[in-house]
Amino acid sequence: MAPSNLTSTSEKIFPFKSSVIKRTEATRCLPFFPPLKKFKSLKEIMETAPYAVIHRDYSDVGCEGCGSVDRAEVMLLCDKCDKGFHMLCLRPIVVRVPTGPWFCPSCSNHNRLRRFPLKQTKIIDFFRIQNHSHIPSKCASPQDTMKHRRRCRTLVRYKKRRRLFPFHPTEDPKRRLQQMGSLATALTALHMEFSNDLTYMPGMAPRSANQASFEMGGMQVLCKEDIETLEHCRAMCRRGEWPPLVVVFDSLEGFTVEADGQIKDMTLITEYIGDVDYIKNREHDDCDSMMTLLLSQTPSNSLVICPDIRGNIACFINGINNHTPEGSKKQNLKCVRYNVNGECRVLLVAIRDIAKGERLYYNYNGYEHEYPTHHFV
């Protein structure tokens, strides 16, 4: 007779963590063996959650740019490598503290800036040019059609009204192609789409919310002649006839805009374009190019233009440091909100003659004084 402590042939032995477990019958509720659970490796876990919160004393972290540990209030810490950078030591400089995760230039994995290929077909497709022409349009501007009316007015009355003038595109078609290519390069680098119209996307503010009558205190109305000038400029852009502007990259200011030809005083430069949204939805937004569109009597109905996904050359025009006299001297544009056929629109207009090669600047704050410009160069 076999000893009682020996295992019968009907029993099976399963090894688990260096121990021996007997199993003589299956569990009633589970007729089959449960599948083995596959655990993720430590590498896989760290790839999905690489930025775990670890309590650490950062008081001794110095700036990688200047080496100083002072001015902790303007020190940014990379959320990946924990290195510190003063906002003014970064290139380009950072104006305000980001609200979301921030990564230093080494950890941001930004690819080297690539120039947009200067091919006629690609430029036309990128900007959706409808009826391109190599020769600037010779059609009369609204100012030309109104000359006979001006003769009936006194000179003093005409100067008071200060009409807007349309821009004059560069005559050289190759140079005009390079201008558009510089804008396409900047938009592509920021993963943006080109748009020359205000866009109303689902989940944001509808077009019905953009009513100039909602403006607190009223909004100045763009006269009929200036509306014709605006539409004339928009028609030229659709044909590929752009204002004489070029987008360049500056190590301090980032992308910025320079005049590529003479621009006269009161010339309509461009309209500020982007997605329209409620200010309440963008209170914690990290985009530094948002523009006020409507300040409603009901604050929850106020609107902003957000050129973070769609925009035009306006989002690359920089602001002045309005805390210094030197900064104010650089201003050559004004940003004005107008009532255009009942809707709010934002236009950028030259306030003096602008020479070729001069960079374009306007006052970000206007009369609201909410945007921090004391770090602007």
Structure description:
The chain is an alpha+beta fold and 377 residues long. It has 2 domains: 50 residues, Herpes Virus-1; 243 residues, Beta-clip-like (Beta Complex), CATH 2.170.270.10. The strands form 7 sheets. Strands 8-15-14 form a 3-stranded antiparallel β-sheet, covered by helices on one side. The chain has a 3-stranded antiparallel β-sheet with strand order 9-11-10, with no helix packed on it. Strand 14 and strand 15 form a beta hairpin. Helix 2 packs across helix 6. The N and C termini lie far apart (99 Å). About 12% of the residues have low confidence.
Feature tags:
2 domains, 377 residues, Beta-clip-like, 8 helices, alpha+beta, three-stranded antiparallel β-sheet, 16 strands, Herpes Virus-1
Order of helix and strand elements from N to C terminus: EEHEEHHHHHEHEEEEEEEEHEEE
Strand order of the largest sheet: 8-15-14
In CATH, the architecture of the largest domain is Beta Complex
Backbone shape: globular
User: How much helicity do the residues have?
Assistant: 10-25%
Uncertain runs: 6-31, 133-139, 147-159
The fraction of residues in strands falls at 15-25%
Average predicted confidence as pLDDT: 79
The major beta sheet can be summarized as: 3 strands, antiparallel
Q: What is the tally of helical segments?
A: 8
**CATH homologous superfamily label of the largest domain:** SET domain
| Main CATH class of the largest domain | Mainly Beta
Query: What is the CA-based Rg, rounded?
Result: 31 Å
N-to-C span: 99 Å
Please name the CATH topology of the largest domain: Beta-clip-like
How many E-type strands?
Answer: 16
How many structural units, i.e. domains? 2
The structure class reads alpha+beta
